[in-house]
Amino acid sequence: MMRFTLVSVLLHAFFLQLAVALIRPTTSYIALDLGATAVSLAWVVASFSVLPIVLAFPLGRMLDIGKEKPVLVVGALLMLATGPGLIFAAPNLTALSFWCTLLGLGHLMSLLSEQKRIAAGTVDHNRIFGIYTTSAAAAQLLGPFLLGFIGGRSVTPDTTALLVGYCAIVFSLLLVSLLMLRHPVVPSLASRSPGGGIRRAFVTRPGVKGGLAASILISMLVLCAIDLLQVYLPALAVERGMAVSEVGLLLAFRAAGTLVCRFGLGWLVYTIGRNRILVVSSGIAAALLALVVVPMPLVSALVLMFCLGLMLGIGQPLSMAMMSSYAPSDHLGTWLALRLTGSRAGQVLIPIGLSTFTIGAGAGGVLTGTACLLLLSSLGSIRPLARLERNET
């Protein structure tokens, strides 16, 4: 991958994740100000992922045939429009859900464009995806600090100030999106029609499809855990009277753990093996996530969140690297869309389902239920990933 291409994608990833790290907790605080319960908050959370479930595949196919420009630019414009919409036109939970829906679509379009460029532009997938996700983790570290700095010591922050900060970040994202279109696209992204249609996209070597499905499942639960932490930790904090600055610090320590683990990811893969570390890290992350709901001193909670970040930070780059290594090269956009469809489906079904079945348990019930599902996905992935490893050898 050309250096300028990589730098522009890394900048894009940084601003995209910084914007999401700030806006997701902010929408939770807005919802709570509007009187949301754990169940109604779950519907607001789910609205972020409704359109991506339906549109991820068509967008992935658009990228496969070279239609990157509209996907990239429209994604940034949708995210930019969300800021003023939330400031001036979100008087109730229904309107809030509408703007979260547009936010989710814009985020999906931007994310798919990034990942397609990264996946199609290199053969060293473990290293490049490690660098790519490190950039995202750095933004996820800075975002909570911005949340705490702007929100201050109050339990409920000035959400308008947070949204103004979000608009400034997304404007930078739009500028980088336009910059990405100015430099040459790597040859494997050139406009061409992938052969064989949708069925051809899912033809893989024997023993590969099950391993890829297992990695997608783990990736889905890891992404859900990270996203639901951003959304439900503020709700848990309001229940316990914690200041916004403390919430920002906890989320920052989670992101710091993720950032640290990315620097040693290559060594871990070389020493333990990609499939083994994927299963082990997700299992440990499940146990740590269940402990988040236990009341404890702030210092202990910070250590817990850092360790949780270490474990949650492993699944994403390894899942993307596996996808890029085994999926047909001319259908990468479709496979990446499948991965994101699974993740967004989890972000819709998990909070709604868990909040419904854990009525009375509040935000803690949703986080505990997510931890149980992550543990089950880790255990269920052992055999298909072992089969994939034997196929490699």
Summarize the structure in words.
- This protein is an all-alpha fold.
- The chain has one domain: Growth Hormone, Chain: A.
- The chain is built from 16 helices and no strands.
- The protein has helices at residues 3-33, 38-47, 50-64, 68-88, 93-120, 125-151, 159-180, 197-201, 208-240, 244-263, 265-272, 274-291, 298-326, 332-357, 362-380, 382-392.
- The longest helix has 33 residues, at 208-240.
- The chain is globular, with a radius of gyration of 20 Å.
- It starts with a helix and ends with a helix.
- The model is unreliable at 186-195 (pLDDT under 50).
Please give a handful of descriptors for the protein shown.
393 residues, mainly alpha, Growth Hormone, Chain: A, 16 helices
Explain briefly what this protein structure is:
This protein has 393 residues and is mainly α.
Strand and helix layout:
Elements: H1 3-33, H2 38-47, H3 50-64, H4 68-88, H5 93-120, H6 125-151, H7 159-180, H8 197-201, H9 208-240, H10 244-263, H11 265-272, H12 274-291, H13 298-326, H14 332-357, H15 362-380, H16 382-392
Helix pairs in contact: 1-5, 1-6, 1-7, 1-9, 2-5, 2-14, 3-5, 3-14, 4-5, 4-7, 5-14, 6-10, 6-13, 9-12, 9-13, 9-14, 9-15, 9-16, 10-13, 11-12, 12-13, 12-15, 14-15
